Amino acid sequence: MGAHAAISLRRWVFDRLDPSARPGGLSLANKVLTIAIMLSVMSAILETESSVAARFATAFGISEVIFTALFLAEYVVRIWIAPEDPRYAEPFWGRLRWMMTPTAIIDVVALVPALIFVGAGPVYILRLFRLARILRIAKLGRMSSAISLMGDAIMERRFELLLSLAVALVLLVLSSTAMYLMEGPTNPEAFGSIPRAMWWSIVTLTTIGYGDVFPVTLGGRMVAGVTAICGIGLIAAPTGILSAAFSDALARRRRLRDGSSGD
Predict the structure, then answer these.
(1) In which region does residue 144 sit, left (phi positive, over 0), alpha (psi from -120 to 50) or beta (all else)?
(2) 174, 222 in Cβ contact below 8 A?
(3) Which residues of 199-224 are buried (b: 16+ CB within 10 A; e: fewer)?
(4) What secondary structure letter does DSSP report for 208?
């Protein structure tokens, strides 16, 4: 009876903690965890500002203890309820396989900095390592259908995206070569070799345009103009591909949902 009650309790917790068990929406526990994740990330970001960190040091310390305790408890509970998922049905090996999943590893990486003893190393290393807390935001992925939709969209249009990447690489090499030929003799510091010219090509094709390197000859400026125009299309192509794929995936999911609700 005791074992049966424990299994029933485990199933009850699983239904309220794992979003996959609630296709209709997030449970109250999921919403609380989502808010806690966002608040912990906001705290990690604000703490990097020295003036804010010094003024609210006590508040940051208390919040870190609370968040660490909450996420550590969540991690332990998720290990306990893992066998409720058919993929991890075995009590021991199933839990071990769950602990090796990307989301579980992210949880551990996000928790480790807060559990490290403060005197374990140089201060600046600990500060950098504590930024791993920002990885907690990645846990929102298992609570949002948008992440899975984006994954479906990328997989569906992976060949078109790879083609866009190939075109980008060709444009990068061609523009770098052209700028090397046009600007190399005049400006060897920036365009004296094709690898040097690639920095300018990358900045131009991605439409960032730092302005730290620029052509001075007429031929170089003509190449720069063509490269800049190509850069606009280079950025627009994968954006359009992903947008169309995401829209198609969303439409399919809506049709499946409407069909299942109609049944």
Answers:
(1) beta
(2) no
(3) ebbebbbeeeeeeebebebeebeebb
(4) -
Q: What is the pLDDT of residue 259?
A: 67
Instruction: Copy the structure tokens of residue 62.
Output: 């208390």
**Helix, strand, or coil here: 248?**
helix
Cβ-based burial of 239 (10 A; exposed 0-12, middle 13-18, buried ≥19): exposed
Per-domain residue ranges for the chain? Answer: 2-143, 156-262
Q: Does domain 156-262 have CATH number 3.10.20.30?
A: no
> Which tokens sit at 228?
């800049």
Q: How many other C-beta atoms lie within 10 A of the C-beta of residue 197?
A: 29
Q: Is pTM beyond 0.70 here? A: no
Look at domain 2-143 and name its CATH class.
mainly alpha
What is the C-alpha R_g of the chain? 26
Of 147 and 154, the structure prediction assigns the larger pLDDT to 154
Structure tokens at 93: 């090996």
> Is residue 127 scored above 60 in pLDDT?
no
Instruction: Give the model confidence (pLDDT) of 149-171 as tens digits.
Output: 777 778 888 888 889 889 999 99
